[in-house]
């Protein structure tokens, strides 16, 4: 019996050592990075559609991030400007007249922030806030056209908040959801009313994490990306092919090819489709229809874009972007029923450029 017990003990030790070596080899195979390590850790896509991994990630559970993506953005300051372009307004109602004009420049200023509020292996949550202002400057002002003059005097504003939830199911699957509410319009602080300007949008994606360099998913979005509120499919595709090349996409709204020039410099090229719905309140009643006091402006644009991101300091990055903006719609609708178009606006395509500063987690936090 003593010999048998010793044999069993020695066999158990051998099996334990073998199991340990097998586990170590398997773990090493899972965490081996690309040949050229890419710092910092993966970030969410460049739009605010999917900001799920702002809250961190657990190694044993699936998430949409892939190796090679840029740094996670916590606080963003963005300024964008176009060159001059023409605008043609074709009236579809007796309440308005036809008009042509020239926009000297179109400016946009954006501030965004993301705060992790819950970080557990099976549930991660982020709260985001954003403020945006779009301004138009017309030549020969006042133009004598109510729409143009109101756009220049008050601008278009967006004040929003969102909740993003990442639910890892296991090592291979995850569910990603987002609920966003925004106040969109030409309001001032004294006349802001929640029920008049609130716009809600929703997203849901079911995904698969195939490897540390490949994640994809399918789902749907209900929002204003294409101008009017509608539901459309969404295909998420994040993949890193090599140490220097990858793609980040949420088709059909966005596709970007990424080039990792170095650990501190990234280049992007691709397109974005953006859309918003703004509420505009007319200051003066219309002669032919005094009851029409509120209209809806639906905007959709396509941007062909190139972008460069570069680390300035440990926690501070700089972004520069340029490209061509094609405006698909900038139309005005009767707010009373939401279906009657009263002005068909055509905005000429124009080059644009933007600069951006954003704060990322310091390296010492990522190493913990």
TrEMBL record:
Protein keywords: Signal
Database matches in InterPro entries: DUF6268
Signal peptide start and end residues: 1-29
Location of the DUF6268 domain: 156-339
Record's protein name: DUF6268 domain-containing protein
Organism: Hymenobacter roseosalivarius DSM 11622
């Amino acid at each position: 019996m003593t010999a048998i017990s010793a044999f069993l003990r020695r066999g158990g030790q051998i099996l334990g050592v073998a199991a340990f070596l097998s586990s170590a080899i398997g773990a090493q195979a899972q965490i081996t990075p690309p040949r050229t390590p890419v710092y910092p850790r993966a970030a969410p896509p460049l739009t605010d559609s999917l900001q799920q991994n702002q809250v961190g990630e657990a190694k044993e559970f699936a998430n949409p991030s892939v190796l090679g993506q840029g740094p996670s953005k916590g606080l963003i300051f963005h300024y964008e400007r176009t060159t001059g372009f023409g605008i043609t307004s074709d009236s579809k109602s007796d309440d308005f007249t036809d008009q042509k004009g020239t926009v000297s420049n179109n400016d946009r200023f954006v501030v965004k922030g993301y705060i992790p509020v819950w970080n557990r292996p099976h549930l991660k949550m982020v709260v985001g806030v954003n403020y945006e202002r779009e301004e138009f400057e017309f030549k020969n002002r006042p133009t004598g056209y109510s729409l143009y003059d109101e756009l220049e005097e008050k601008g278009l504003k967006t004040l929003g908040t969102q909740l993003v939830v990442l639910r890892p199911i296991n090592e291979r699957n995850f569910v990603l959801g987002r609920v966003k509410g925004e106040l969109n319009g030409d309001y001032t602080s004294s006349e802001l009313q929640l029920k008049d300007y609130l716009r809600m949008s929703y997203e849901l994606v079911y995904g698969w994490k195939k490897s540390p360099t490949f994640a994809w998913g399918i789902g749907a979005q209900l929002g204003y990306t294409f101008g009017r509120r509608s539901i459309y499919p969404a295909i998420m595709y994040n993949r890193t092919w090599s140490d220097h090349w990858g793609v980040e996409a949420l088709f059909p709204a966005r596709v970007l090819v990424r080039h990792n020039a170095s650990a501190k410099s990234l280049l992007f090229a691709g397109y974005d489709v953006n859309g918003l719905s703004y509420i505009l309140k007319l200051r003066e009643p219309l002669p032919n229809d005094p009851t029409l006091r509120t209209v809806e402006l639906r905007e959709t644009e396509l941007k062909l874009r190139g972008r460069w991101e570069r680390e300035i300091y440990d926690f501070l990055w700089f972004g520069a972007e340029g490209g061509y903006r094609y405006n698909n719609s900038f139309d005005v609708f009767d707010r009373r029923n939401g279906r009657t178009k009263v002005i068909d606006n055509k905005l000429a395509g124009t080059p644009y450029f933007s600069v951006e500063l954003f704060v990322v987690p310091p390296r010492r936090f990522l190493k913990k």
